[in-house]
Please model this.
Amino acid sequence: MNQTHQKFLNDSEVKAFDLEHRRKLLYNIGKYDVAVAKGKTQYSDLELAKARAARIKRNIVNNFETYLSEFEGNFLANGGKLIFAETGADAVQAVLKIAKKFDARKVVKSKSMVTEEIELNHHLIANGIETLETDLGEYIVQLDDDKPYHIVTPAMHKSKEDIAELFHRKFSTKPDATPEEITYFVRKLLKEKFLSADIGITGANFLIADVGGIALTENEGNGVLSMSAPKVHIAIAGFDKLLPSIKDLDLFWSLLSTHGTGQKITVYNSVITGPAKADEPDGPSEMYLIILDNGRTKVLEADPQKEALSCIRCGACLNVCPVYKNIGGHTYGSVYSGPIGSILTPFMNGFEEYNHLSFACTLCGKCTWECPVNIPLHKLLLYNRRDAVSGGFTDKSFSKVMKAYKKVMLNRWMIETVPTSIKNVGIKMVFSKAWGKRRQVPHFQESFHSLWKKEEKGK
Model:
């Protein structure tokens, strides 16, 4: 067992038995559950909408090169500048090079999981560039020197009392400040930052091939301001964000908002096709798009796990996952947590270190049922397990146990001829430690086969 796996087990145990953590997490997820159930009622046939979206995304996954080439031609024709980054380090260096070109000292960012993936904030700040998260949840996490806990809701693990205490500690606001008061305080603070920033950085919810534009969807307006107020706009996105046409947005924007937050549609929806034109008074004078690989090609080469590249990052699979709801987001040790993170992280960060995430699943199938693009998440986790075992990344003892189990299951006489008392002694000797100190080792009783024979004999 490697250190990453051991840390996962240790952190899982701490979080699973932290009742206050569980209370906060379940309370916040519960709010989403109610909202999402209500949001789904806007569909006359939700399953048909999901099937359409799945078909479009699978087509993209199977034809990435074609759509990426179309997007590239249209984006460049719109006046944008395109950079392809193979690794996170390449993407960071590209941003730093642009910042140096424009002598940038201040950066504002809208919410973006891909910038968390490459730890962009850390690198910008290390190079003397003031970097500010403008999404309220991300700002709270940044202010507390923390990391996002959830794909959609970065501060899901914090209560309103935790946040009020944080702002009191950092800004001497009222210790019992309400969410409305904190929001108003942050809004005033950020306004000046938007106006004085040299560069605005955003992610992209979708890359639209036929118009060569990026689509942003948000609730606070910080994305719109981040890409339009500064003179330079940098967008960063994985190539898995591609969609064929702007006509697909009516389907995907609504599915994303419904499954992410329970809204029919989010408040601000924008399509940005490049820098401001000569006759446009607003918008950036330069726009760069960095398209990131960072392990996505490895996922694309894996069959059938490549279906995970259909993900639209709604976070719905996290909200229904019994494992996530017990151990929380940070325990995964990855930017992407929950079922989708357990599929992607081994490819992005290495199977040898992170294959254990694929085993952190009950296989209940709730994530697959909830996914708005019909990714068979729990099945893909099984394929990850297959690859982890065949690659020799799992503990050798695990393989030995499974071989022994297979042999016994294929030879029933081994089970039937061993007395029950010996079975119970053996199971305790072999599994008592692995089974966990808080669980009771199963106790064998008379077998069904033996009971059946007695019943037949009695007749």
